[in-house]
Structure formats: C-alpha cells, structure tokens
C-alpha cells in the first residue's frame, strides 16, 4: 500500500466538479496544492477554481486516466463514478476512497446488505426486482414504506413514498421499472449525521453529530453541534467510527442516522465524501470538512475537529432565484454573524442547490435562530 504523504505543492485530482469539488479545491489551494477536476458539465462549479478541468462523461475511462496521470492523488465528490473508471484511475494514482468503498455505497441494496453483514443497526428493508415483488414486499413491511432506486437518486430524487401495497404499480413506473430497495416507514424523533475522516496511515478523527432538518426529502437546515443527548452523541460517534474502519475508508465517510422515538439509532445511508450537513464546519470548527478531506487523502496529519462556536447552515435552492426580484443578497450580507456561500452555478432550477448561508451563535439555539432570520431576509 502506498502511504507516502502528498505534500503541499503536489497535485490533487477530483472526480466531479460540483459544489463539493469546488469547496474541496478552494481548501486545497489554501494549503498550496494544484487541483484538477473531471466533470461532464462544461460549466461545472469547480471549473473556475481549478488549474485544469477535463470535460468528460464519468464513463470515459481514458479521460479519467489523463486526470490520474497528472495527479499525485485522486479523490471524488460524487458516488456515481463507474467501477471501470475508478479502476482505470487507480492504475496511475492512489484513489482515495478506493473502488471497494464505492462498490458498497453505489447500490442501496449492496449497502444495506453490507450493513446487515457487519451487524450495524438499520430499519426493516428488502430489495424488490419486479413490480409484483415490490407489492408483496411493501405489504410484508406494513404497507407504509419508502421505495428507493438501488442506483442513482439524491436530494429526494429516485424515491417514492407509498401508503400501501396498492401504490406499488405507480411507484414501480415512476422509478423507471428497475431494482429498488423498500424501507419500512419509521417514527422519527430526529435525523443526525456523523462525519469521520480516516487517513491511509489509519489515523481517525470524528466530528460531533449534526442535527438535520429536511423538507421534501432535501436537507433544509443543519445545526452543529446537534441538540441531542450526550449518550446518543456517543453512540452515533462510535457507530460511524466503526463503519469507517470496517470499510477501510481513506478520506471521508458521512453516516446519516435516524433517531427513533423509542431511542433506537439506525443507519440511513453512507456517503464517502464531503456532505451538505457538514458545511457548517467552515465557520464552526478549527478544521473544515473540506480541509480535512484534503488532509486525509494526502495522508497528512488530520486537523482538529473541535467546535469553537456553534453554527447552522440553510440551503439556498434555485426556487429563490426564480422568484420575482431574486435573492436579496444585500439584506443578508448586512447581518452580523452570517456568511453567504454561492456555488457559481449559471442556471437556476427548482430544487437545485445554488448555495447556502451559514451563521454562528454563542449557543446552538442562537445560531439556528440567526440562520432562519437570514433566510427570511434573503427572501425565501
């Protein structure tokens, strides 16, 4: 295994040029690295903050090889990279996280099976490969379920809630008549996430859990640290650490968790990359998740995960840009303790993440109140 550190001045390649790639690239530049990215979108968010941007489909292994040959290490900001491309990259540069991690998380059925095999707690679920199987599975799980495509889908896309097995045919059609995971609906008390950084040398750092609030299955706001009991925080942290170790992640792993009304803590989903729910680390922590990602994949000492002040973030969706008058930037920029983060996207669409606001406070409650007031001032 190549555990040589990639020191500042080296070149980092990023598979994906969305907002996460953009923010990773900016953090890498602060540390003195050169950065390259590959993305199918010629106007991707990272294009104007990297040294070189390759415009190519993720399935074009030869273009990914070009990126890898010119990089000292390659990482990613999106899961939907074909295995053939990942393996082509690994022929020429260390790939962190590795293809074995993506093999597990890219498919919800495989991810659920991996969690079950390793004894990690999750809600009742089954995979369905046909309409008839979907109907019978939904019935066996109590009727009220969430149906999710095995591959693809994010920010609420690729999901269909059903109230009974009678809605199975509609769900099957809406989701493209392809394999799905059927998950029993749960009585949730809270949604949490934990971010783990792990370097090739085996050093691990775990951020305190974030408390997340969703609207229409898209993250609306997130609070760090989350307002949760210390015992729950400790359990969530240990679960996430154990999963990162079992997966042998090199880089970041975010574990999304459900806290049930009965106190159970269950795994919802894994993401081996920076995560929307930890954008607040840029203003809350000594080391942001983006700098930590760079440190981890370059095998540098990991940074402190200490929270120096509570913070909250709220997402800014394209809907705001489509309203008459658009976003009121000047209003929010005048508010103390609030920062505006835009992703450089040219085209606003309903539901598209265009940026976020962050706010700090002397307490988590103050940070949350401030971020909600900032969003209102923005016109949302």
TrEMBL record:
It is an enzyme of class 6 (ligase). GO terms for molecular function: 5-(carboxyamino)imidazole ribonucleotide synthase activity; ATP binding; metal ion binding; phosphoribosylaminoimidazole carboxylase activity. GO terms for cellular component: cytosol. Pfam families: ATP-grasp (PF02222), PurK_C (PF17769), RS_preATP-grasp-like (PF22660). It comes from the Bacteria. InterPro entries: ATP-grasp, ATP-grasp_carboxylate-amine, ATP_grasp_subdomain_1, PreATP-grasp_dom_sf, PurK, PurK_C, PurT/PurK_preATP-grasp, Rudment_hybrid_motif. It catalyses: 5-amino-1-(5-phospho-beta-D-ribosyl)imidazole + hydrogencarbonate + ATP = 5-carboxyamino-1-(5-phospho-D-ribosyl)imidazole + ADP + phosphate + 2 H(+). Keywords: ATP-binding, Ligase, Nucleotide-binding, Purine biosynthesis. Its EC number is 6.3.4.18. ATP binds at residues 108, 148, 153-159, 183-186, 191, 214, 268-269. GO terms for biological process: 'de novo' IMP biosynthetic process. HAMAP family: PurK (MF_01928). Homodimer. Catalyzes the ATP-dependent conversion of 5-aminoimidazole ribonucleotide (AIR) and HCO(3)(-) to N5-carboxyaminoimidazole ribonucleotide (N5-CAIR). Belongs to the PurK/PurT family. This is N5-carboxyaminoimidazole ribonucleotide synthase. The gene is purK.
């Amino acid at each position: 295994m190549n555990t040589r550190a990639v020191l500042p001045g080296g070149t980092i390649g990023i598979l994906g040029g969305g907002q996460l790639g953009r923010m990773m690239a900016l953090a890498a530049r602060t540390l003195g690295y050169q950065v390259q990215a590959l993305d199918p979108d010629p106007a991707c968010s990272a294009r104007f903050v990297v040294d070189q941007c390759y415009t190519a489909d993720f399935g074009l292994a030869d273009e990914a090889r070009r990126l890898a040959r010119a990089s000292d290490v390659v990482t990613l900001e999106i899961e939907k990279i074909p295995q053939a491309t990942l393996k082509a990259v690994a022929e020429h540069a260390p790939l962190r996280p590795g293809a074995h991690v993506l093999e597990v998380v890219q498919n919800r059925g495989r991810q659920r099976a991996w969690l079950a095999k390793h004894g990690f707690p999750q809600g009742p679920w089954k995979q369905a490969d046909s309409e008839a199987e979907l109907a019978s599975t939904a019935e066996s799980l109590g009727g009220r379920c969430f149906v999710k495509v095995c591959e693809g889908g994010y920010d609420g896309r690729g999901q269909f809630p059903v109230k009974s097995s009678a809605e199975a045919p509609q769900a099957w059609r809406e989701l493209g008549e392809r394999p799905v995971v059927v998950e029993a609906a749960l009585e949730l008390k809270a949604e949490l996430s934990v971010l783990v950084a792990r370097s090739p040398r085996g050093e691990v750092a775990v951020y305190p859990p974030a408390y997340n609030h969703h609207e229409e299955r898209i993250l609306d706001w997130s609070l760090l640290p989350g307002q949760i009991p210390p015992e729950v925080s400790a359990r969530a942290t240990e679960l996430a650490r154990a999963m990162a170790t079992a997966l042998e992640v090199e880089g970041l792993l975010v574990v999304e968790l459900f806290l049930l009304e009965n106190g159970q803590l269950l795994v919802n989903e894994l993401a081996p990359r920076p995560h929307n729910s930890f954008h607040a680390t840029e203003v809350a922590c000594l080391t942001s998740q983006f700098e930590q990602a760079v440190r981890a994949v370059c095998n540098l000492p990991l940074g402190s995960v200490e929270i120096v002040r509570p913070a909250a973030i709220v997402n800014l969706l394209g809907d705001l840009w489509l309203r008459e008058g658009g976003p009121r930037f000047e209003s929010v920029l005048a508010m103390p303790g609030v920062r505006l983060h835009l992703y450089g996207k040219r085209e606003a669409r309903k539901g598209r993440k265009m940026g976020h606001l962050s706010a700090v406070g002397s307490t988590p409650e103050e940070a949350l109140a401030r971020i909600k007031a900032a969003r209102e001032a923005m016109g949302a």
